[in-house]
Design brief:
The chain is built from 13 helices and 22 strands. By secondary structure, it is of the alpha/beta class. The chain has 2 domains: 267 residues, Aldehyde Dehydrogenase, Chain A, domain 1 (3-Layer(aba) Sandwich); 188 residues, Aldehyde Dehydrogenase, Chain A, domain 2 (3-Layer(aba) Sandwich). A hairpin with a 2-residue loop joins strand 1 and strand 2. The radius of gyration is 23 Å and the shape is globular. The relative contact order is 0.14.
């Protein structure tokens, strides 16, 4: 960790904030300050934007194979430094080391995937129906981009945005979450080592997001915003993008249903529930939020899930044998505490967990609630914590209606042994992604994103690079 940069990365140079401000980074397992990094202001943001704009033309002309080679080298360096990067993530956001190592592999795969997509950008050629004009279609980078990433997957979310931008030929200003700046700075250092030219990637760590981002979005030189975060913040950013018609990709909040039918393999369903609920301590937009279990199997499913959740070991992510690390901060834990308390006041039963432990750190125990009232706040709120809320249902139409009764539509999960039912229900869910008999949908080779208020556009997969490309049509008369 001592080798991780703590300065801003602007135009290929590591530099302090113009006003000398610094931002403390806290370990959520202890509350202690682990490092201090530069805290950028508006002047730093303008310098980063200037660097990205200056670099754009030359970077767009760079050979696709050269861009591909940089991404492939970054992939190899990230994997070579798995342990150091994992420990860095655990220190700044708390996830257990085993999960952090998994995220390093996940992040690295975005660099490999888009290294392959970089050399597959193509256009088209044809003759228009009148027979008098040839049509030439070419693809070109959209231009300088602002990338805003969250704290819950700090390495992977950076890689998921940076890799396709590099592949497409776009320059970038990257603003990571203030809770987890170290992972992003480490990533910038790796890309610098991999040969990324000066100014292509600029990283501004800051606690002053509005001061840094709004002028960039309203200024007219940033042509693309890619944001991952809450729906509320996403709405504000969309409004700021309207003035200069900035192209946007938005990966926003979720309220994922997890449906267990009466014919489901309960062992498999519980396994899937543990992944969908407990990945990253439940601090994931893809986390299962509302468990709808058929009335005939609800008691058994709840019992098995509670037993599995109760067996999880809670503690600092660096400690051997720990399954569940701390939540990101005191505010995040307080939100989970209040959601559980509200559900209990409305009649929910606590099968396991539900009590905040004493001592330092932002820990909260894995919790299972049954008899949850549909009016409970956690039914209409993204929990972002290790809480499984179970409700029962009786028939297919009912559960589809209830699952879709939300402004969000990122992902849904369903378990059934009937393929016809699985496909039928999956197609009726108003979500951008569906896990059928699986609790994990995220993969760099698949398009990630939602519908309704869960976002705009897709990241990953073959379509991921499309978000950073424009079409140009050229008409050529036939002589």
């Amino acid at each position: 960790m001592s080798d991780t940069p703590t300065q801003l990365f602007i135009g290929g140079t590591w530099t302090d904030a113009a006003d000398g401000a610094v931002l403390p980074v806290h370990d959520p397992a202890t509350g202690e300050t682990v490092r201090r990094v530069a805290d950028a202001g508006a002047k730093d943001a303008r310098l980063a934007e200037d660097a990205a704009v200056r670099a754009q033309e030359a970077w767009a002309r760079t050979a696709p194979r050269a861009r591909s080679g940089i991404l492939r080298r970054a992939h190899e360096i990230v994997l070579d430094r798995t342990d150091a990067l994992a420990r860095l993530m655990t220190a700044e956001m708390g996830k257990p080391l085993a999960e952090a190592r998994g995220e390093v592999a996940y992040a690295a795969e975005f660099f490999r995937w888009f290294s392959e997509e970089a050399v597959r950008i193509d256009g088209g050629h044809g003759v228009l129906p009148d027979g008098r004009t040839r049509m030439l279609l070419s693809r070109r980078p959209v231009g300088p981009c602002l990338l805003i990433t969250p704290w819950n997957f700090p390495l992977a979310m950076g890689a998921r945005k940076i890799a396709p931008a590099v592949a497409a030929g776009c320059t970038m200003v990257h603003k990571p979450a203030p809770q987890t700046p170290l992972s992003s700075l480490a990533l910038a250092a790796i890309l610098e080592e991999a040969g990324l030219p000066d100014g292509v990637l600029n990283v501004v760590t800051t606690s002053r997001a509005a001061e840094v981002c709004e002028p960039l979005l309203r200024g007219g030189r940033i042509r693309k915003l890619s944001f991952t975060g809450s729906t509320a913040v996403g709405r504000l950013l969309l409004a700021q993008c309207a003035d200069t018609v900035v192209r946007t990709s938005m990966e926003l909040g979720g309220n994922a249903p997890f449906i267990v039918f009466d014919d489901a393999d309960l062992d498999a369903a519980v396994d899937g529930a543990m992944i969908a609920k407990m990945r990253n301590m439940g601090e994931a937009c893809t986390a299962a939020n509302r468990f709808f279990v058929h009335r005939t199997v609800a008691e058994e499913f709840s019992r098995r899930l509670a037993r599995r959740m109760e067996a999880l070991v809670v503690g600092p992510g660096t400690r051997d044998g720990v399954d569940v690390g701390p939540l990101i901060d005191a505010a995040g834990r307080a939100k989970v505490e209040e959601l559980v308390a509200d559900a209990v006041r409305r009649g929910a039963r606590v099968l396991t967990g539900g009590r905040t432990p004493q001592g330092p750190g932002c820990f909260y125990p894995p919790t299972v609630l049954t008899d949850v009232s549909p009016d409970s706040a956690l039914m209409s709120t993204e929990i972002f914590g290790p809480v499984a809320a179970i409700l029962t249902f009786d028939d297919e139409d009912e559960v589809v209606r209830r699952a879709n009764d939300t402004p969000w539509g990122l992902v849904g999960y369903l378990y059934t042994e009937g393929l016809d039912r699985g496909l039928r229900v999956g197609e009726r869910l108003e979500t951008g992604m569906v896990g059928l008999n699986t609790g994990l949908v995220s993969n760099p080779a698949a398009p990630f994103g939602g519908v309704k208020q869960s976002g705009l556009g897709r990241e990953g997969g073959r379509v991921g690079i499309e978000e950073f490309l424009e079409y140009q049509y050229m008409a050529v008369p036939i002589r």
